[in-house]
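Consider this:
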Amino acid sequence: MSTSAIFILDVKGKVLISRNYRGDVEMGLIDKFLPLLMEKEEEGNLTPLLQTSGCTFMYIQHQNLYIVSVSRNNANAAMVFSFLHKIVQVMSEYFKEIEEESIRDNFVIVFELLDEMSDFGYPQTTESKILQEYITQEGHKLETAPRPPPAVTNAVSWRSEGIKYRKNEVFLDVIESVNLLASTTGNVLRSEIVGSIKMRVYLSGMPELRLGLNDKVLFESTGRGKSKSVELEDVKFHQCVRLSRFENDRTISFIPPDGEFELMSYRLNTHVKPLIWIESVIERHAHSRVEYMIKARSQFKRRSTANHVEVVVPVPADADSPKFKTSVGSVKYVPEQNVLIWSIKSFPGGKEYLMRAHFGLPSVTSEETEGKPPIQVKFEIPYFTTSGIQVRYLKIIEKSGYQALPWVRYITQNGDYQLRTN
């Protein structure tokens, strides 16, 4: 069974907008949501699914809003949560920021979107590119009510027919974020790679694309087990990918949406050697000064270069009179965040740089805060992937038989990248 009604509430539980799809629940039931939520929070028993007599609340929180589905008890929870996240995604693409003000300012469009995205409580058109073709932000002229594009009734609901480009091109970006936590002794305590393949498609007609990766499962099944391959986990695809085809022979086959979209995301739970290693010596002299010696070393191949590197070093809240000395880049003190930021525009592989900082401390000691925040590193390394994932081919098949240019880029960047200090 599906969702009966959708509500968007502010933090105080006040209804900003609602859409009753089935008429099988009383709209006044939403008044029970916030008290029930607070009760569960006090008990320490908070879940994204709350039950009361006669209905189930399933909700997500975004910024200062609650997006709540009210259903009869036997609703498909996975479908409902997926739909709630899709509402947030579509509205973000329409209004950039979703908050109380943007809901009030765009009341008519929000209601139209809720109306078009679900039919009798079942998800219907959830692709924002198609919705934007007939729900526009300029408002409708009364004498010519817009007709929904054919894509809404087509099997391929995410792409319109009749798209034409003078130059047919496909841009594919493989972007990997490295999450890492290392101890003061240099041991990696936690590491993972979170990757995504993003595409920009400017192709005429209804092309079918086939993407081949150095996927471990595929390589083993085709007798290439010893070739360099990667084992992808938690793979999520855009709705355009033919899942049955992927499950059968690991081929990623799809008719793409027009323009920009995320084709897939994946995760690798592999042991990652820190790409940029930081050594820190911090000397605290009570009531007078604190001195930092920070050494940054790039631990990737010399032919690669990290760009826009930032080493973010926490400093005491009562520090003053900053002095810096560095062999490369620039250093600035950001007192409102209690950090110093060492910026290095270009950091080639196999290099080591040094930075020294000196701060004065007041003669009156402030209370020690618990724990020492870690050093954070931000970076971007183009033409490089940590996992070793490779695009082996990108085939474009279209009945008119035109030639198209595929462009592939690889980028590795920091995710949650932290190194603990003494």
Summary: The two ends are 55 Å apart (CA to CA). Residues 77-95 form the longest helix (19 residues). Residues 139-145 have pLDDT under 50 and may be disordered.
